[in-house]
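Morning, I've got a small favour to ask if you have a moment. It would help a lot if you went through both lines with me. I owe you a coffee for this, so here goes:
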Amino acid sequence: MLNKLKLEIGHFKSQSHNFKVLTLTNLIYSIVLPVIDIFVAAYVMRNSNDPTKVVVYQLTIYTGIPITFLINGWLLNRFPIKLLFSLGMVLSGVSMAIMMSLNTLDITGIAVAGIVMGMSFGFYWANRDFLALSTTDNNNRNYYYGLETFFYTIIAVLIPVAIGWFIELSARGGDAKLAYRIVTGIVFVITVLASVMCFKGKFINPVNKKFFYLKFDPFWNKLLVLASLKGLVQGFLVTAPAMLIMLLLGQEGALGTAQSIGAVFAAILMYIIGRKTSPSQRIYVFGTGLLLFAVAALINGILYNATGVVLFMLFLLLAKPLLDLAYFPIQFRVIDLLSKKEKRSEFAYILNHEAGLYLGRLTGAGTFLLLAYYFSNEVALRYAIMIVAVLQLSSFWVAKGIIRQGDEMEKSLHHQVIHHE
């Protein structure tokens, strides 16, 4: 066992300097991700008891992201990428501070906090995606995302339990708001530490200065369809667990405990899958994630009780990392191929990809709001997730076609290079 561990550590050490710095930066920042993803939504639920406000918060986040992607493209021509990457991490703490400073959770205050959080995600993900793309290649991306997912999932065991029970015990003492403010302060400290680690990297900005295009190769449109289907459920993956648990289980302690069930097993499984699978096996990993998410949504919709929520969370712990582990390498391979074919900056594709995600997020969140407005919050929480989960199953065939066309394009580009030489 010890020899196996040394072998894995040796494999990590054999990676490039930037690979190691980026992984460690994301590892440090991942400590605050459960707080941002889960407990801010829980804070809105605790203080408003209104699921529609949580969805409004999420919609403003998703509106801030594509706007910031555009701003980030312009700023990349003027500032180092690691400075913008760090700004994204620190802004998440600023957004939480804005939320905690509100005396009453009105729509305007929630929207402002949401926009700032969206800017945080925009700066973070735009630069993180480019750095991951430029630091890895098609052969080690499964390993990179398997390693990241391993750390994220382990942290998802510890942080939700610790913070959840800290908030709940503070609430029993009569001061849940103070507990949230303490957590916000800790988030600030961790984001600064992640920024310090980021500055140890030798990261280079995108070379091509032009990022904004309206027309792309038809192959890119297929990936935009896949991105829209991914965006369809993203909002629910972030806010649904918090809303369901606060409504059906009760408190943040239960929220943290439910988040941690089965996470150790999931973490080890993700690492093994990332380390051992080849690029040709990504479609099977992706399909398994889609199926698990559909099962989770159906269980929640049919049962809609405490047991259903726990089972929903359990399936989600496997579904979400499997989907991410397969999706990002598929996306990056398409960007690799098309950036060579069209001779454009990789960031141009990362920026445009966000438009596909945003369309899906609007559709998914809009479905929830319509069901909540015309029927009830219960109908929205039970059936909106089921609707988007079933729709997302079509992603399997879209992804399969993308992988097949990517193989053909790679061969074509390879032959062109040989002919040119």
About this structure: The domain at 16-203+213-420 is CATH 1.20.1250.20 (Growth Hormone; Chain: A;).
